[in-house]
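Minutes, project check-in
Item: structure for the 483-residue chain
Input as provided by the requester:
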Amino acid sequence: RSPKWCTAWIAPGLAGSTFEMSSAFVVAASSSLAGCLSGSAHRAGWRRGVAAVQSSRLARRSSDLDVKGALGRLLCSMGAVAVALALPKVNGRRRPLTGRRHRPVRGIVQRLRSGSLAARPAAAWKQRGLFGAGEVLGTGELDVGAGFRIYYEEHGSATGVPAVFLHGGPGAGCSRRMAQLFDPNVYRVALMDQRGCGKSRRTGNSGDQLDDNTTWSLVEDLEKLREHLGHEKWVVSGGSWGSCLAFAYAAKYPERVLGIALRAACFFRDEELEFFLGPGPGARTSKPEDWTRLTSWIKQEELSSARSIAKAFRTAFLGGSAELSPEDAVTKWINWENSLTGAPPTNVGSEQGATISTFGPVVPALPPAWPKFEKPPLAKGKNWPVLERSMQALLTMHYVAEGGFLPDGTSLIEDARKFNFPTFLVHGRNDSVCSVKNAEEVAKALPQGELMLTDGGHSQWDSANISAFVEATDRLAWQVMAT
């Protein structure tokens, strides 16, 4: 249906074996023909064809071709063609398979139409890793107003399925590793640093990044980026805070979304923030000593809720607390998040602390590093209050203190009931930041939602989460290209 996308998928498979490709294309052709002859829409037949070709590519990539599966799909497809041709015509159309004697054949045709006979080979369900680092198609800065210029990069195939990946935090910033969650031969994925973090900071100090920095301003930045890149629609993906931002964007601009793939669903509802930071049951009860170290300096009356704790930290970070210095505030906050994700402790006041990874185990095949923000020189006697990772801590405090600028995060789940595009949700059962209940709740609301639970935690770079997310982006591409 879209030639440039079809080329991006089929061309890489031409390097496969003769049997592999010939069987895939016969399945594609016969599936489409069977769909047409039996009265079903041509699009359904093409969907099966695309899935068959992609099955071939996945099998080749895993070096474990499911020969029996390929032969089965080929024979069943040819059989469906024969059945369709043998059906008598009624008023110029083939008579449907409604009789009792047609039950076995009808089952085959129905499975063929649903795509179950074009399922991926068993090898495709094995543990998946990141894709190789693809080509950097381009970089740029987009003026979105209020003094902010958003830094972005595009990776993958110039003719691929357009997509954007939204980082977490808020304020975590992007890394080029995120592009490796997408097949570089299939996707054209955009990465962007959101307002106030990474290379998307405006002139001024850390506190100046908070003005005009809300969920809905980020949503408008996304829409401006889509228009700037020339995409009519795109796949929206992300993790943690990025999932909340993705749902907000899809709620406001559903007509611009091809599909969604997310990890660690969150909606910044009060109960979620309490689970993450509050004095009640949740992360505090699973990490009591870490929570005590985090909040020991806060006055008792400010420990009543997660939002009041975040406000105390935001004040300290900006230099307004007599009890805690900005550097110590950031150190405490980052160590709290590290305790929840399993990362080692850090100290932002040390040289090592400025470069230490807080995103879990190292993943092989790392691409070149994401460009760093270059701090402009300040007046004599003035210093930047904290080191590189400070903006993530400040922006996270800022958004938690304001409830994500969402009057009621539940409304995002209600909006999701209206989504008419496929949505994949990856969530770790051991996530101590975003409760798995979030994903289970929204999965029930989504008309075309699929929940993929893993044994991982919160980090995108847990091996189980990588495997499920790569699987999700592959499956989403199949569905998008077939519509």
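Outcome recorded: The mean pLDDT is 74.
No further action items on this chain.
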